Amino acid sequence: MTISKRGNFFAPNKSPWSFEKYDSDLERRMMRRLESDPHVVKWMKRHQLVIPWIDGQKHQRRYSPDFLVEYEDGRKAIVEVKDPSRIDSNDVQRKRKAAEIWCRQRGMTYDIATIG
Question: Is CATH 3.40.1350.10 the classification given to domain 7-113?
Fold first, then answer.
Protein backbone atom coordinates (compact mmCIF):
# COMPACT_ATOMS: atom_id res chain seq x y z
CA MET A 1 0.00 0.00 0.00
CA THR A 2 1.24 3.50 -0.86
CA ILE A 3 2.47 5.51 2.05
CA SER A 4 0.93 8.96 1.70
CA LYS A 5 3.72 11.35 2.53
CA ARG A 6 4.06 14.82 1.05
CA GLY A 7 7.17 16.91 1.08
CA ASN A 8 9.90 18.65 -0.84
CA PHE A 9 12.90 17.09 -2.54
CA PHE A 10 15.57 19.77 -2.26
CA ALA A 11 18.46 20.57 -4.60
CA PRO A 12 17.96 17.97 -7.33
CA ASN A 13 20.84 18.00 -9.82
CA LYS A 14 18.80 16.88 -12.84
CA SER A 15 15.69 19.02 -12.39
CA PRO A 16 15.55 22.65 -13.55
CA TRP A 17 13.98 23.57 -10.21
CA SER A 18 15.68 24.14 -6.85
CA PHE A 19 13.20 21.68 -5.34
CA GLU A 20 10.45 19.31 -6.47
CA LYS A 21 7.32 18.43 -4.50
CA TYR A 22 6.33 14.82 -3.97
CA ASP A 23 2.89 13.52 -3.02
CA SER A 24 3.91 10.07 -1.76
CA ASP A 25 6.89 8.11 -0.55
CA LEU A 26 6.86 6.27 -3.89
CA GLU A 27 7.35 9.57 -5.72
CA ARG A 28 10.15 10.60 -3.35
CA ARG A 29 11.91 7.29 -3.94
CA MET A 30 11.50 7.69 -7.70
CA MET A 31 13.12 11.12 -7.49
CA ARG A 32 16.13 9.55 -5.78
CA ARG A 33 16.22 6.84 -8.46
CA LEU A 34 16.07 9.40 -11.30
CA GLU A 35 18.85 11.44 -9.68
CA SER A 36 21.14 8.40 -9.47
CA ASP A 37 20.33 6.92 -12.91
CA PRO A 38 23.31 7.65 -15.19
CA HIS A 39 21.05 7.45 -18.28
CA VAL A 40 18.73 10.22 -17.03
CA VAL A 41 19.79 13.70 -18.15
CA LYS A 42 16.78 15.68 -16.91
CA TRP A 43 13.58 15.06 -14.99
CA MET A 44 10.81 17.12 -13.46
CA LYS A 45 7.55 16.72 -11.63
CA ARG A 46 6.44 20.34 -12.16
CA HIS A 47 5.99 20.01 -15.91
CA GLN A 48 2.50 21.35 -16.71
CA LEU A 49 1.56 18.30 -18.82
CA VAL A 50 -2.11 17.34 -18.78
CA ILE A 51 -3.54 14.33 -20.61
CA PRO A 52 -7.27 13.95 -21.29
CA TRP A 53 -8.86 10.57 -20.58
CA ILE A 54 -12.35 9.05 -20.28
CA ASP A 55 -13.40 7.39 -17.02
CA GLY A 56 -15.63 4.33 -16.64
CA GLN A 57 -18.78 6.49 -16.63
CA LYS A 58 -17.67 8.09 -19.92
CA HIS A 59 -16.79 11.42 -18.29
CA GLN A 60 -13.92 13.47 -19.67
CA ARG A 61 -11.12 13.77 -17.10
CA ARG A 62 -7.70 15.38 -16.97
CA TYR A 63 -4.60 13.58 -15.76
CA SER A 64 -1.27 15.09 -14.75
CA PRO A 65 1.42 12.40 -14.91
CA ASP A 66 4.08 12.09 -12.24
CA PHE A 67 7.33 12.73 -14.11
CA LEU A 68 8.69 13.99 -17.40
CA VAL A 69 12.09 12.39 -18.01
CA GLU A 70 14.74 12.92 -20.68
CA TYR A 71 17.41 10.26 -21.26
CA GLU A 72 20.95 10.59 -22.60
CA ASP A 73 19.90 9.05 -25.94
CA GLY A 74 17.40 11.92 -26.41
CA ARG A 75 14.33 9.83 -25.61
CA LYS A 76 11.63 11.60 -23.60
CA ALA A 77 9.23 9.67 -21.40
CA ILE A 78 6.42 10.13 -19.00
CA VAL A 79 7.00 7.99 -15.93
CA GLU A 80 4.07 7.22 -13.67
CA VAL A 81 4.76 5.72 -10.25
CA LYS A 82 2.17 3.28 -8.93
CA ASP A 83 1.79 0.93 -6.05
CA PRO A 84 1.72 -2.59 -7.57
CA SER A 85 -1.68 -3.23 -6.00
CA ARG A 86 -3.25 -0.41 -8.08
CA ILE A 87 -1.79 -1.15 -11.53
CA ASP A 88 -4.71 -3.31 -12.68
CA SER A 89 -7.46 -0.90 -11.61
CA ASN A 90 -9.78 0.34 -14.35
CA ASP A 91 -8.89 4.00 -13.88
CA VAL A 92 -5.15 3.34 -13.99
CA GLN A 93 -5.55 1.27 -17.16
CA ARG A 94 -7.72 3.95 -18.81
CA LYS A 95 -5.20 6.67 -17.93
CA ARG A 96 -2.40 4.44 -19.17
CA LYS A 97 -4.06 3.88 -22.54
CA ALA A 98 -4.74 7.61 -22.99
CA ALA A 99 -1.17 8.48 -21.96
CA GLU A 100 0.36 5.90 -24.32
CA ILE A 101 -1.57 7.39 -27.25
CA TRP A 102 -0.70 10.94 -26.17
CA CYS A 103 3.00 10.04 -25.90
CA ARG A 104 3.09 8.14 -29.20
CA GLN A 105 1.67 11.22 -30.99
CA ARG A 106 4.60 13.23 -29.61
CA GLY A 107 7.40 10.71 -30.15
CA MET A 108 7.61 9.92 -26.45
CA THR A 109 7.17 6.79 -24.35
CA TYR A 110 5.04 6.05 -21.31
CA ASP A 111 6.28 3.90 -18.45
CA ILE A 112 4.66 2.77 -15.22
CA ALA A 113 7.18 2.19 -12.47
CA THR A 114 6.68 0.26 -9.28
CA ILE A 115 9.23 0.78 -6.56
CA GLY A 116 9.74 -1.91 -3.99
Answer: yes
